[in-house]
Structures are given as structure tokens and as C-alpha cells.
């Protein structure tokens, strides 16, 4: 609601009725004060300091703001209480008596105006006492804050929309992370199956041979027993036993059985290690922050990507002394896998992938370097962008480095990259021992 504009220049004989007179007299001062009071943005009012807080004075600008004549507001002893919104009134009534203790109170509430609608008002009340300390009256100032409340509601609605969008973005990020992880696992599934099938294949073959050997051994034993029954003469028995032993090649069977069992046990251990590496890599059932060893994570990840790398690169590990860190272990393993697979894909053949680790103060670092093709300078600033890839269509999602960047950033760390075309690339992951965003270690 707009206030009426008044001319503050030297008034003439046709001036507004509320304009100040020319003379500097007590009467002129009173008129001037009345003029200012009537045209201030806030409604000034007074009430009795007891009972129903009946209004005893209301400034004339109430008509401009609320649509009521001041005389109408003063005449009705319940005017103020009767025009407060029913939902806001209880909170005001229950605490109004505190003004006699605190000396001042402030409220924000809806007030019904002349046309039946409600305006939001800021009401600031102050208790005035006489020279004896007895409450004399309450002076109040009512200011229309409807526009401010509208803006606050709009900002709150936008804030809720932004929170919803942030929640959806986080959900989308988590889905992308899982999709990238599944895509990476799918990419390596054939290699892992091959790694498992190899030991299973020769264990199966060995067991088949062992089955034949056992049959032969039982046959030898049977012939021993038969020879002992049929030939009581000692030398003849020994000659017969030697003949049977030579025919069965028992010495070879004995040695080969030991080797077969050893190889079979080694093969089964390899299967067990691969399965354990899969569990360690994914940290099944462990989705919370935990204290973990980066070296263990690197080793389990290397087992997972072994088939992807072993035909084209040699792994060189230069592990330093590392403290255990508070982290999301499975997500850091995803970072290591992305960097190792990228390193392998950058090497055509006979390359080297080096892994170095170390720590300084409250930080640890993991460096994964390769002797591959390198990254062109014009691409270095884009490699962490989502869906950006220089690989052929179908060879990658373009999400690996972007999601790796997000994971490291979630841990309060950073990724640095250095590359030279034709000579290789080096990624260095820096991580704090205790990430600032992580909950306290258990």
C-alpha cells in the first residue's frame, strides 16, 4: 500500500492540510511532529499497560496502511486483539505479559485490514513507566512486512527446490558411480573368468590323472597280493614285485602325484585369492566410512585387473610407509581400478605401470604412472569432464575419471596429472588421513 506523497518544500496558501506552518513556534513544532508522525511508514500507537491493552492513540497513517480510521481503532477496546489472525493470536497472548518483565517485546503476525485480507506486520512494543516505576503506557510501532514475508516464502520455496535438485543430483551421481563400477566389472568379467577357469581347468585335469593313477596303484596292490599268494619263494617274489613295479612305473607315479597335488592346491589357492580380491575390491557389506589400508586396496584391485594388464605391461610396485586412513574403501578401489585400466589401455605392448605410495604429515599419496601414449595438451584440461573420452566408441563411458575426481574430492583430496605425448602419464592421488567431511573413526 502506497503512502500519499506530500510536498516538503516551503508551503503556500494552498498547501496540504497536514503541511507544517512557516513559523518556528511550539504550535508549529507540534504540527510538524504530527505531520511526520502521520507520514512515517510505521503506524505508531499507544495502549493501556493492563487488561486488554486497549488502544489510546493511533497515528493517522493507519488509514493508509490498514484502511481504518484511527478513531475507530481507539473506540473499540478489543480492536487490536480482534484483528490478529486466529492462528497467530495464541502465541502473542501467551507471552504478552513478559513485557512487564523485559520492558519490550516484538512480534510478527497477520493483521486483518479493512477489505478483509491480511497483512503481515512487525509489531515492536515498549513499556513506559512513570517516575515511580509504575507502568504508564505501552508504545507500539506497526510496520507492514508483507512483501518481505512474500520474498522469504519465495526464497524458502526456491531453497526447497534446490535441496530437491541437489538430492536428485546426488542420487544421479550415485547411480552413475554404480553404473561405472558395473561397467568396469563387466569389462573385466571375461578376464576374471579366464583367470578362474585356468586353475580350475588344470585342477580338473590333474584330478582326472590322479583318478587314473589311483586305479593303477590299486591294480599294483592287487597284483602284489596275488603274487604273494602264488609264489611263496622269496627271491622269486621279489623279482615278481620288481617286475610289476617297473611295468606300472610306480616311481614316476609317486613323484607325479606329489606335483599334481601341489599344483592343484596352488590352483585352488589362486581361485580363492581371486574371489577374495573381488570381495576386497567391492568391500561387500561395507558402505560406511572405515579405517583401511590403501596398500591392501591397491593389491586387491591389481588382482582384479591382472588379466587386463599382464599381456601388455609389467607392474612395478614401490610402496612406501603408509598409515591407515579413514575412507570409503570400495570407492577408492574404484578410483585405483579406473587409473590402472586407463594406464593399461594407454600402452600398446611391453610397457611399464608403476605404483608409488608415500605420506607427508597428515596426507598420503598414491601415484600411478605408465609408459603409454600420453595425453595431448589440449585434452589435459578436459579429462575430468563427465562423458569426455578420447577412446573409440564402445571402449569407454567417459565417466571413469570424472567419477574418480568426485570420489577423491568427497574425501577432501585432489588428483594431479602430468603427461607427455609418447612418453606416458602420471596420476597422483592426494588424500588426507582423516577427511574433514567424514564422521569420527569408530
UniProtKB/TrEMBL annotation:
<dbReference type="InterPro" id="IPR036890">
    <property type="entry name" value="HATPase_C_sf"/>
</dbReference>
<dbReference type="Pfam" id="PF08447">
    <property type="entry name" value="PAS_3"/>
</dbReference>
<feature type="domain" description="PAC">
    <location>
        <begin position="105"/>
        <end position="157"/>
    </location>
</feature>
<dbReference type="InterPro" id="IPR013655">
    <property type="entry name" value="PAS_fold_3"/>
</dbReference>
<keyword id="KW-0597">Phosphoprotein</keyword>
<protein>
    <recommendedName>
        <fullName>histidine kinase</fullName>
        <ecNumber>2.7.13.3</ecNumber>
    </recommendedName>
</protein>
<keyword id="KW-0067">ATP-binding</keyword>
<dbReference type="InterPro" id="IPR004358">
    <property type="entry name" value="Sig_transdc_His_kin-like_C"/>
</dbReference>
<feature type="region of interest" description="Disordered">
    <location>
        <begin position="1"/>
        <end position="23"/>
    </location>
</feature>
<dbReference type="GO" id="GO:0005524">
    <property type="term" value="F:ATP binding"/>
</dbReference>
<dbReference type="InterPro" id="IPR003661">
    <property type="entry name" value="HisK_dim/P_dom"/>
</dbReference>
<dbReference type="InterPro" id="IPR001610">
    <property type="entry name" value="PAC"/>
</dbReference>
<dbReference type="InterPro" id="IPR000700">
    <property type="entry name" value="PAS-assoc_C"/>
</dbReference>
<dbReference type="InterPro" id="IPR005467">
    <property type="entry name" value="His_kinase_dom"/>
</dbReference>
<keyword id="KW-0547">Nucleotide-binding</keyword>
<dbReference type="InterPro" id="IPR036097">
    <property type="entry name" value="HisK_dim/P_sf"/>
</dbReference>
<dbReference type="InterPro" id="IPR000014">
    <property type="entry name" value="PAS"/>
</dbReference>
<dbReference type="Pfam" id="PF02518">
    <property type="entry name" value="HATPase_c"/>
</dbReference>
<dbReference type="InterPro" id="IPR003594">
    <property type="entry name" value="HATPase_dom"/>
</dbReference>
<feature type="domain" description="Histidine kinase">
    <location>
        <begin position="191"/>
        <end position="435"/>
    </location>
</feature>
<feature type="domain" description="PAS">
    <location>
        <begin position="29"/>
        <end position="103"/>
    </location>
</feature>
<dbReference type="InterPro" id="IPR035965">
    <property type="entry name" value="PAS-like_dom_sf"/>
</dbReference>
